[in-house]
Design a protein that fits this description.
By secondary structure, the chain is mainly α. Among the domains are: 67 residues, no CATH class; 110 residues, no CATH class; 95 residues, no CATH class. The chain contains 21 helices and five strands. A three-stranded antiparallel β-sheet has the order 2-3-4. It has a two-stranded parallel sheet with strand order 1-5. α10 packs across α15, α12 packs across α14 and α19 packs across α21.
């Protein structure tokens, strides 16, 4: 088996296709078999990543982190962590859980630079897929300054860039020129490229959003209220054609109303993608490297634990019990409206039946335990977790002790 090493900045998905083509293999199943993996289901992409890639890394003598950081889109696409948010510093990219995403490129149309493909062929005898060309919002080659070309048909990365160039479509030179002329878009490109090339761990989204919110206030902007919304500033400073091409949500932006990019600094909204976050940084900092530095130190920010993302499921269970299921009190403590609080409780697996429902659950739990049932049996009967039943019972005992103390 011919097993070439990665080219500098070569995209993993493209490398696997190159490896298959050079060895006359049909698919990842055949490649895995050749690498010594017993069986990889053709329809199971998770198995493919979990079994094929470790075998490949072992053959190359490489580590998970180097593959993730140097040959995938993970450092940019997954730079904002949205889980385990009580931990200021999420685990770095050495975690094998990132391998599946490193294999996947979603629905992206592969992009190439015709000049790079020709130069590669002349210098190396092959052409290969560069990950820098796949960054969203950057429509030109950083090396040659020419518009990239998109491959809109055929298997993504199924053949070399040079072969794909035959049926690739060049991105509009006019649209690219408008982006290149914009200082904001140029800063966005620097931010996106630098993060992709240098990031070795994700950043806590709650911390990062706090950085954006504070910076907006420092430059007399806001992410929550008119006047001077960040989203309005984005519409003023960024080429409209480029915005609509890469940020379709901007098309629905209403002047003086909170919109798409404002959510980069709003903890109570769903986390935005890294592209939107990068654009927010490009708008708020004149120096892109200062923006990256501020974000890389985001974990030092004091977390706002009233954010809807910072509360752990254990915390939410305690809040639900303390407020006896009352939606109004729970929403007030979470600093959310009632609909947002309901969605957050549902995500945590907590009931939404209010104070009356809480009292019914408490009564049923106490009665069932006195009749000899276990906590797990009560939980199954009430369709809630055993942990929640135990919290409700502890709360009930504490309340009973307080009432006895007051009466004495």
């Amino acid at each position: 088996m011919a097993l070439r090493t990665f080219m500098p900045g070569e995209l993993l998905r493209g490398y696997l296709c190159r490896l298959r083509n050079e060895n006359g293999l049909r698919d990842d199943v055949a490649l895995a078999t050749m690498l010594g993996v017993p069986r990889v289901g053709a329809s199971n992409r998770s198995s493919s990543a979990n079994l094929l890639l470790p075998a490949l890394l072992a053959k190359l003598g490489a580590e998970v982190k180097s593959l993730i950081c140097q040959h995938s889109m993970v450092p940019f696409a997954k730079y904002l962590a949205v889980s385990n948010l009580r931990s200021p510093e999420p685990p770095d990219f050495s975690d094998a859980s990132y391998l599946w995403f490193a294999m996947s490129m979603g629905g992206i149309a592969p992009r190439l630079c015709r000049d790079c493909a020709t130069e590669d062929l002349n210098a190396l005898g092959i052409s290969y897929w560069r990950r820098l060309h796949q960054l969203p919002g950057i429509d030109w080659c950083a090396k040659h300054g020419r518009p990239l070309s998109e491959v809109l048909r055929g298997a993504p990365f199924g053949e070399s860039p040079l072969a794909s160039a035959v049926h690739a479509i060049d991105i509009s030179a006019k649209a690219v020129e408008a982006g290149v002329r914009s200082p904001v878009v140029r800063r966005y490109a620097t931010i996106a490229e630098t993060i992709l090339e240098t990031a070795d761990r994700p950043v806590n989204f709650v911390c990062a959003a706090t950085v954006i919110e504070k910076r907006a206030l420092d430059v007399d902007l806001s992410v929550t209220k008119h006047p001077s919304l960040l989203s309005d500033e984005a519409m003023r400073q960024t080429p409209n054609a480029w915005l609509r091409m890469h940020f379709p949500a901007s098309a629905t932006k209403v002047p003086n109303k909170v919109g798409w990019i404002d959510y980069a600094g709003t903890l109570h909204a769903s986390p935005v993608g890294m592209s939107t976050f990068s654009l927010a940084m490009a708008l708020l900092w004149d120096d892109p490297h200062e923006a990256i530095k501020a974000l890389s130190h985001a974990h030092r920010e004091k977390l706002n634990f009233n954010s809807s993302f910072a509360w752990s499921e254990s915390d939410l269970s305690d809040i639900w019990v303390k407020n006896r299921g009352c939606h109004k009190l729970i929403a007030a403590e979470l600093d959310l409206n009632k609909d947002q609080a309901s969605r957050r409780l549902t995500k945590a697996g907590l009931p939404l039946y209010g104070r009356h429902g809480f009292e019914e659950l408490e009564k049923k739990a106490i009665t069932s335990l006195r009749s000899g049932k276990t906590s797990s049996q009560v939980a199954r009967a009430c369709k809630v977790s055993e942990d929640l039943i135990e919290r409700v019972l502890r709360s009930s005992r504490q309340t009973e002790n307080v009432e006895m103390s007051d009466s004495s």
